[in-house]
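Hello, quick one for you while I still have it in my head. Could you read through the record and tell me how the tokens relate to the sequence? No rush at all, and the record is pasted right below.
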Amino acid sequence: MHKLSVATAKGRMNTAGCTKLAVFFLACLFVFCGCPANASDSKDSQFPFVKDGKLYSYSVPTEEPSLIKEYEISGALEGYAQKAVSVSKKEGFILAWNQKTQYLYYINSDGHTSSKVKLSGTIAYVNKRFVLIQDSNFSQNKGFSFTLYSIKYSRNNKKISLKKVWGGNVDCFVSDCFFTSVGVCISGGTQDNSKNNAFYITSKGIHKCFSTAKNSDFLRLINCGKEVYGFMSGREKAYAEPVIYKFTLDDYIEGNDPESKINLINDSKLPQGYECFFGYGFVTTGLPEPAEGPSYNIILPASIDGTISFIIYDPGANKIYSVIPDAVGCVTPLGQSGEGFYYIARDPLIDNSFYGIALFDGNSCKKIEKIQ
């Protein structure tokens, strides 16, 4: 068993101005962001993650004890980021982009490189179907350069190749993203810090699907299939109204539109000590089973009297189902398995906070394995 430790940034402000500041922002983002681009879109038993630039995976226990596995890739021991690793199409294999070597590695269940592809850039967002690569140069009135590639697997699924499907510039300091079967949705602030936007990128092009005013916060995304939910995660635990947003990937809507904005301030189950949303959220199925409407619930991390709880929002009933205490804080959603939803727990604003693998089973948050 490998014992791990990490230092997580308290937060970052989107940087406006010269290219040097943009590069500095991206360097910080590469080290500290826990973007859930790799969160599983199915029920898996293995979840890759990154600590201090090194690559690991957590295997859900069955009859054997749980296992944290360290990968020692020849010539690429360090240089990974959480958003740049993912499970792959082939069970037991993982994908991992390395910033130092500029390769996308396809790693087998034994921890060896089955295939690798050269892929140059500053930041990568990876899942089993696509890779979105970004460079560090911000062009005025254009933004950062992004390129979307589809991942092609060989007939026996032992090798990969890449095919470019889109390229362009976007004024977006990415704060979150998720992949679909045909592309990727990214969210983030503009260079002038005035707006939080969400963009959907596919082989057909790019379009803005959501926009709202930006304060000292980050737009987080929760993909629910036909609908997307967003919320603002604060840099600090300062009060902000419990507002969530609903939009689709096909159309465009403003955050102040009544069809988009959902305010939970008058919900009877909102705790009196509520302060703000803080961290990353996720969607679950059957944890618990909704009484009506969609077969999923939305899990919102919220600071309540200074500590993080999970607010379970039922979109079918349009109200809070329950509040689960002692979540610690979700810095990286990993994915759902049969036992519940796994995530990496830590509260960066509390000294000596628990840091490790945690499980949300619908009724409680369980600390599974400490990372130290």
Q: What stands out?
A: Confidence is low (pLDDT under 50) at residues 1-34. The chain is about 5% helix and 50% strand. Residues 333 and 343 are 4 Å apart (CA to CA). Helices lie at 19-32.
